[in-house]
UniProtKB/TrEMBL annotation:
It comes from Streptomyces himastatinicus ATCC 53653. Pfam families: Methyltransf_25. CDD domains: AdoMet_MTases. GO terms for biological process: antibiotic biosynthetic process; methylation. Residues 79-172 form the Methyltransferase domain. SUPFAM superfamilies: S-adenosyl-L-methionine-dependent methyltransferases. It comes from the Bacteria. Keywords: Methyltransferase, Transferase. This is Putative methyltransferase protein. Coiled coil: none annotated. GO terms for molecular function: methyltransferase activity.
Length: 251
């Protein structure tokens, strides 16, 4: 999600500062290990900023509309939520699910999510884990992730989609929500190991994060090429995707 502060103070980057990393050899050719420090800084940002994370949800009408859209999505059965953050989406998932398991690496956001879901209609099981290392111990009917895909470096996307596929039971669906290119108001950083932006917290501290603004068409084509069935629609500058992984008899 693009924080309100970033939207309000949109920076104009001069030509050449670039909206994307300009290293030679496309992202898929890079060693994914190059981005370890960037991913650690991204996590540090969410840990340090946990207390201010919810502000855009209070301030931005389109985020509330997006949250409400969950009620029309095919969330069902046992649900796995990846990068659950402060649990903005978790109670809505719990209202539609048989069970919810919510994973995030930051203890600080998980504490807020636990408090937010204390009275949810279903008990939520929280797991603190690094999604780039964690492997699902079982399968789920729905794997949901909001504002996470844009934080996955392109070189790690194939592995991420494989993890999602491995987490889905037969007939299960991945459902994802994120910023589209129309929401690309960020302080974009050049020459990073993955597309990246600079985020600032209230105390003035600054952190690099991964930020990939997927457009619906390219994301659809990429997933289709990997054998997934996918539908993506745009909603107020964001996108909502519903995808099913390849089955053994589809290839
Ligand atoms: C943009 S927030 C999304 C939170 C929530 N899904 C939402 O939409 O409000 C990204 C989340 O990813 C989590 N995160 C960052 N790095 C992670 C990692 N390596 N493994 C698991 N979670 C991570 C952060 O703690 C943060 O809660």
């Amino acid at each position: 999600m693009v924080p309100a502060a970033v939207l309000q103070t949109r920076l104009t980057l001069s030509e050449g500062e670039g909206r994307r990393c300009s290293r030679p050899g496309g992202p898929e050719e890079r060693n994914p290990m190059d981005d370890d420090a960037l991913l650690a800084e991204q996590l540090a940002y969410y840990r340090a900023g946990a207390a201010q994370y919810d502000r855009p949800y209070a301030e931005r009408e389109e985020l509330r509309e997006l949250l409400a859209a969950v009620d029309g999505l095919p969330v069902a059965g046992d649900v796995l939520e990846l990068a659950c953050g402060t649990g903005q989406w978790t109670p809505r998932l719990a209202a539609r699910a048989r069970s919810v398991t919510a994973v995030d690496a930051a203890a600080e956001v998980l504490d807020l999510a636990r408090a937010r879901t204390a009275s949810a209609s279903r008990a939520v099981r929280f797991v603190q884990a690094d999604l780039f290392a964690w492997r699902p111990p079982r399968r789920y009917d729905t794997v949901f992730f909001a504002f996470w895909l844009s934080h996955v470096p392109p070189a790690r996307l194939p592995g991420f989609w494989d993890t999602v596929a491995a987490a889905l039971a037969p007939g299960g669906k991945a459902i994802f929500v994120d910023d589209g290119p129309a929401a690309a108001e960020e302080e974009v950083l050049a020459d990073q190991p993955a597309p990246a932006a600079l985020r600032r917290l209230d105390d003035g501290s600054r952190y690099r994060i991964v930020k990939v603004f997927h457009d619906a068409r390219t994301l659809t084509d990429d997933l289709t090429a990997r054998g997934w069935s996918v539908r993506i629609r745009t909603v107020a500058g964001n996108y909502i995707g519903i995808a099913e992984p390849p089955t053994a008899d589809s290839g």
